[in-house]
Amino acid sequence: MKEEIEEYLRSLGVERGLSVQTLRAYRGDLEAFREFCLRAGLDSPAEVDHRFLRRYLAYLQTRGYSRSTIARRTAAVRSFFRYMVRKGLLDNNPALALAPPRRQRRLPRVLSITELEEAQRRQSLHVYRTSLRDMALVELLYATGMRVGELVGLNLGDIDLKRGEVRVLGKGRKERVIPVHAAAVQILEAYLERERPILAANGRWGEDGKAPLFLSVRGHRLSDRGVRRVVERFFQDLEGGKRVSPHTLRHTFATHLLQGGADLRSVQEMLGHVDLSTTQIYTHLDKKRLKEVFFQAHPRT
Q1: Chain-centre distance of CA 6, in angstroms?
Q2: Among the options 147, 196, 220, 221, which is catalytic?
Q3: Last residue of a domain, one of 70, 86, 102
């Protein structure tokens, strides 16, 4: 089964253009399934039937995995067997009727405008060798709602400060253009003029023949982990110890746009969502805001 899994992962990378992070997640989920098969004495996809897959699902549930983890692992297994049938390596798909548990849809964590402004104010009081980079990075994440993987993949040629636009390569290697507001453009200009040349002098930032937008202190392209550290440090003093990630800023971007009156399809386009239902999670409103809308809009009030 190991060879079949490796071939499947290669096809995901080539045919669907999935990111390294997504491929790593698929590999982990399928390796966990393979280990379960080996313990049961199975080493070939042809030996797996629907009853065995239901045993695997029950095993995950008894081990205390969350619904989202079980749903993700089930999806990986279903996708793997669908590939095997499509390639003619199996006659029947044993995972065809395999139903994962329904995920609990939790509302994403969102920062308030006050929290954003307070974090920016505190950050501006400190000057260190990457202070402009960090402020520009956080501002761009909040300004565009892009994913962390999309941010680290940005090159200098992808951003047009005069037009206030950034070109992003998203999931499935689909390209989209997102507007960038004036406040983000201003801090990006400061970073590019005063700090990035110093960082670039520290290393071979053009190893892949491209010029990354955001650099590490060693002059290399900033990594996903590096971005997460920057964001966590930027918001580390929030009241209540609220932990902030790049994805928190993506949630905040979408929620603030919708609360400000943006239509759902425009937000979908900027986020790079294929399915509109994925974007709809951001349409939640707290009770106070809901009452405000009601009393402003209903003709009887």
Answers
A1: 24
A2: 147
A3: 86
- List pLDDT tens digits, range 136-179: 999 999 999 999 999 999 999 999 999 999 998 877 778 889 99
- Confidence (pTM): 0.64
Tell me the per-residue pLDDT of 182-224, one tens digit each, with 9 for 90 and over.
999 999 999 999 999 999 988 766 555 588 999 999 888 999 9
**Is 247 tagged catalytic?**
yes
β-strand pairing of 165-169 with 159-160: antiparallel
Q: Is residue 256 annotated as a catalytic residue, yes or no?
A: no
Are 71 and 123 within one domain? no
Mean pLDDT of the chain: 84
Q: Is residue 294 part of a domain?
A: no
Whether the Cβ atoms of residue 143 and residue 180 lie closer than 8 Å to each other: yes
Known catalytic residue at 59: no
171 is catalytic: yes
Cα separation, 26 vs 20, in Å, equals 10
Q: Which of 171, 228, 233, 284 is catalytic?
A: 171
Number of structural domains the chain divides into: 2
